[in-house]
Design goal:
Layout (H helix, E strand, L loop, with lengths): L1 H18 L23 E5 L12 E11 L5 E10 L7 E5 L6 E9 L5 E3 L3 H4 L3 E5 L3 E9 L24 E9 L3
Antiparallel strand pairs: 1-2, 2-8, 3-7, 3-9, 4-5, 5-6, 5-8
Length: 183
């Protein structure tokens, strides 16, 4: 019985020594390389026109410019969106009054942004948040505006006719932020 116990102990000890690494030399020092890097904050300037005179007969190109673009993270872009128009619930339309008659008029606008489709400004859920321009570097990009009127060339909208002698006005505000580039 002693021989069997001695053999089992010898086998266990041999297995233990095989599993443990055996070093030929003692080390007296070691090294860990450390680093720290915090990326620069993105920097850019977006310029939009202060005023735009719309055409009654053709699409109006509205330029948006990004300059001094630096440190944009990979996979991100500067997105310029239509935040809201001057109308109720952020709708985008023009209003005017005929000075001779005192009659008030309203003209809805169509907007075309980066998706390439015109959307009507009378529907805030369609236009609010729509991307008008985007950038990953310095450049200029145009979005388009046009009146939604029966007498506008190629219009199919059942809307008001642009009235002569009426000065229409309105405004829109922009949202500008970094967003993910969708592939």
């Amino acid at each position: 019985m002693k021989k069997l116990a001695f053999g089992a102990t010898l086998f266990a000890a041999a297995t233990l020594f095989c599993a443990m690494p055996i070093f030929a030399a003692n080390t007296t020092s070691g090294r860990t390389d450390l680093s720290l890097y915090v990326a620069n904050d993105p920097v850019y300037t977006v310029t939009v026109p202060e005023t735009v005179a719309l055409s009654a007969t053709e699409n109006t190109q509205v330029p948006v410019t990004a300059s001094d673009v630096k440190y944009i993270p990979e996979g991100k872009k500067i997105s310029v969106t239509l935040d809201r128009g001057n109308g109720t619930f952020g709708r985008l339309y023009l209003e005017g009054t005929n000075e001779e008659t005192g009659k008030e008029y309203m003209m809805t606008l169509y907007v075309k942004g980066t998706d390439g489709e015109f959307k009507m400004g009378a529907l805030e859920n369609q236009i609010r948040g729509m991307e008008l321009a985007s950038f990953t570097e310095d450049g200029t990009m145009n979005y388009e505006l046009r009146p939604a009127a029966l007498n506008y060339p190629d219009s199919t909208a059942d809307n008001l006719v642009i009235q002569k002698g009426v000065h229409y006005s309105g405004y829109l505000t922009y949202g500008i932020e970094l967003t993910d580039i969708e592939e």
